[in-house]
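I'll show a typical protein example:
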Amino acid sequence: MKTIKKPFFSDCVGWPREKVDLLHELVDEAQDIARSTFLAYADSETMRDMEVSLGYGKGFPMSKDWHVSYHVHRPTGIKYFKHSAIEYVFADKEQMVSLERLVEQKQALLDLEDQLPHVEAVCLPADLVRLAFVNQWSDDFIRLIDERTKHLNLADNERDEFFGAIAQDLQLYALRGEDPASLVSIANLLNLPSVDNLQEFLDENRSLCERFDLPVATPGNARGSLRVIGSSMTEVVLAVNDTSAVVVDRAKVSPFATRYDEKVSISFSSLGGVASVKPLVPTPQSKASMSM
């Protein structure tokens, strides 16, 4: 069966302005290939005409010009050659659609990262952190409670009782079908102006997985090196690659993974096992957070 070779799409000079991000993707992710590999892919007649138009002939064929390079974009299979700093791209319609979809997915992940709660250096009492895991409290809500306990200057046993009272009222609120009376009790404990202020915290306390419609991490979809792009008190969002992200229970990630302001690379031996963490150029502030 004869293979249908790919037509010429465009060079970088005449590239459609509205699709320039596709060209950037091709060039940024390109890998070198042999000329023979490229010729087996590109339309032969078009290549012959191009070589002539570029000044090549029997005296000096293009195959002898070591300044010409050949490249492939592995995710889509699109190939191009580069001559005098100009890329000549060969691709069919289906490949260009795949390239456009890939660029959209990458941009969607970047947009997601901008929307996510960013990893911050936070040092909280261990008992408060444990309650956060149990009750799925948001970072803002945790900070509010922590500030209130410091303002009241509570002793350790008094602070535990304070946490327990809030946790009990939250549980009653859920068990009673979002009973307003439980919210009034919590609002009073936290000295909030109204129940509406507390409701705002609770409304923001939805799961990151639910809020951004992300899959839960499993050993199958979260292998290898993962990048922390956001977190809450109970969940961590990890970029699996350039186009997708997953959510993992924060208890399954080394606590240092959410203590950096900079991005962190995580390698899981298994999701239920120990996670080793390697910081990517931590800032001085990030380094300081490790000693807290």
Q: What stands out?
A: The first strand starts at residue 8 and ends at 11. The chain has three domains: 8-113, 137-206, 209-290. The mean pLDDT is 77. Strands lie at 8-11, 30-32, 69-73, 78-83, 86-90, 225-231, 235-239, 245-249, 264-268, 275-279.
